[in-house]
Design a protein that fits this description.
This protein is about 60% helix and about 5% strand. The protein contains 19 helices and eight strands. The radius of gyration is 28 Å and the shape is globular. The relative contact order is 0.10.
């Protein structure tokens, strides 16, 4: 067997591969194992679901809908829920798996962002992660639309309106997607093909590429004694990491199964079949599509006539332009931060979010922006539950959408700087012990406990880039102006920090520990000493 299929050569290197040992790195595995559960339950559901929009009269087990005309897709979804043994459990596990998959993927991306794990050489992995997130949204929307119930039909109606808002090509695109005038006869079969073939194939392929890059580039790790920017520390694949990750897979499967058995989700029999002339009250999409719903509800319904065509800004801006700006920003952010940073070496040490206050503030501001849109997507339910007015709610959240993100940015940045100042106090005075002592003069003072060597190491070893220098006044005027803008943005991004108390010798050692792998520590220490002496001469 080894001569024909050299498995042992591969296994010999794989069993000693080092994997991270911190809990925050398991967020990506939560997403991976949720995807595995999705694939397994999805295969089971394909045996019983009929993706047809042909109409029949329902004669199944659910008596309240007996004799009602509906599509075969909706009828088969009811059959899975009431007539197939274990069908409702598998369908709800599948739905909960989709919710957990997108949630775990989102939190994993936030962990990567706030710790700076997207920097060189992992920019491509960040791009793959953002693409996986986009595909997860499309996969969730297509699966949510397949049962053809009243709520999923409303989602397709909104999608039709968004496509119609595209100038020039909107009507042609809508006619092609739906196979004729809305609702057509082809949208459910086409979504089914996307949902079970194209998008899952892309997801599996990109997950494989993502994992391969992780194995090749190695993972980042948190700072600590023995951890530098030029090594990798963690658990070997066998037996430690294998035991942990297998246990995590069964834990994820168990939690999703418990949710599927105990927590009702998407009860399509209560909504009824979709009819274009009806709309359900209080309908809400899954959380990962809620920000689009909120953006549509907050945008004023405005229209413009351009060159003989109507441009519906009320749908084009919130559902096409805004998501385009959001995901374009996610794609280009690693390169934008690299453009503003002096020293473009590799980074393998995770940043503590407090040590990068501007980046952390931007991330929290983006979360606040998303949260406002998500809450606004349920304005009708909130207004009805709390006795508010729709007009007042909408105008309040329009103001929050503009004011809350910058406010969160400022507060977060100040909190990060305060935490840095707290680290400085800990290094100078130690931790509070709670012991109060009395001096011989009768005064009282608190006794502090000095930090251990490992604690001082964790606080002092940080990779904080310096802002860019002033641009040289040479070259064309456009390039000089661009260089000045770049320098100003770099100072705004990297300027604010709290210097930690350390000796010159400690600063040299820190610079050597965070030196990129492409250069030796001795070379970096020599360059640091030269720059330090040069700065002293200038002072």
């Amino acid at each position: 067997m080894d001569a024909r299929l050299p498995l042992f050569d591969v296994a010999r290197g794989a069993v000693r591969k080092v994997f991270p040992d911190h809990w925050s790195f398991l967020l990506g595995e939560l997403a991976l194992y949720s995807l595995v559960v999705l694939l397994l339950t999805g295969v089971y559901l394909t045996f019983f679901f009929r993706p047809s929009m042909g109409e029949i009269v329902y004669q199944g087990s659910y008596q309240p809908l007996s004799g009602v005309r509906m599509t075969e897709a909706y009828s088969s979804a009811l059959g899975i829920s009431f007539d197939v043994r274990g069908g409702l459990l598998i369908r709800q596990i599948h739905h909960w798996g989709a919710v957990v998959f997108t949630a775990a993927l989102s939190v994993h991306m936030l962990r990567v962002f706030f710790t700076g794990a997207f920097r060189r050489p992992r920019e491509l992995n960040w791009l793959l992660g953002v693409t996986l997130f986009v595909l997860a949204l499309l996969e969730g929307f297509s699966g949510y639309s397949l049962p053809d119930d009243l709520i999923s039909g409303e989602g397709l109606r909104i999608a039709e309106g968004v496509m119609l808002s595209l100038p020039l090509v909107g009507s042609y695109l809508t006619f092609f997607v739906f196979g004729g005038p809305y609702p057509g006869n082809d949208i459910i079969p086409r979504l089914y093909s996307l949902h079970i073939l194209l998008i899952p194939g892309l997801l599996v392929a990109l997950v494989g590429a993502h994992l391969q890059l992780i194995v090749t580039l190695k993972h980042t790790h948190w700072g600590g004694r023995g951890r530098t920017n030029r090594n990798v520390v963690g658990l070997p694949f066998f037996p430690q990491f294998l035991a942990r990750t297998v246990g995590l897979f069964f834990a994820v499967a168990a939690v999703l199964t418990a949710l599927g058995a105990l927590a009702q989700v998407n009860p399509i029999w209560l909504f009824g079949p979709y009819r274009p002339d009806q709309a359900s009250t209080g309908s809400q999409p899954d959380w990962y599509m809620g920000f689009l719903e909120g953006s549509l509800r907050l945008m004023p319904a405005t229209e413009t006539r351009l060159l003989g065509h109507s441009v519906s800004w009320g749908a084009l801006v919130p559902a096409v332009l805004l998501p385009g700006v959001i995901f374009t920003t996610l794609y280009v952010y690693p390169f934008a931060e690299r453009w503003l940073t002096r020293g473009r070496g590799e980074h393998h040490l995770c940043d503590r979010p407090r040590n990068q206050p501007t980046r952390t503030g931007l991330g929290v501001g983006a979360i606040a922006f998303y949260a406002v849109l998500l809450v606004a997507g349920g304005d009708d339910v909130i207004v009805y539950s709390f006795g508010l007015t729709v007009n007042g709610f909408v105008w309040t959240f329009r103001a929050l959408l503009v004011l809350l993100p910058p406010l969160c940015f400022v507060i977060t940045k100040r909190v990060c700087l305060a935490l840095q100042a707290h680290d400085r106090e800990r290094l100078l005075a130690g931790d509070e012990s709670g012991d109060v002592v009395q001096s011989v003069q009768g005064g009282y003072s608190e006794r502090h406990r000095p930090l251990t060597a490992d604690q001082r190491y964790d606080l002092l070893v940080r990779d904080v880039p310096e802002p860019l220098d002033e641009p040289a006044p040479a070259g064309p005027a456009l390039l000089r102006r661009l260089a000045r803008v770049r320098t100003a943005l770099s100072r705004w991004f990297h300027r604010d920090r709290v210097e930690l108390p350390a000796t010159e010798e400690q600063y040299r050692r820190i610079a050597a520990l965070v030196a990129p792998p492409a250069r030796s520590a001795a070379e970096y220490e020599y360059e640091y000493e030269y720059e330090y002496e040069h700065q002293e001469d200038e002072q």
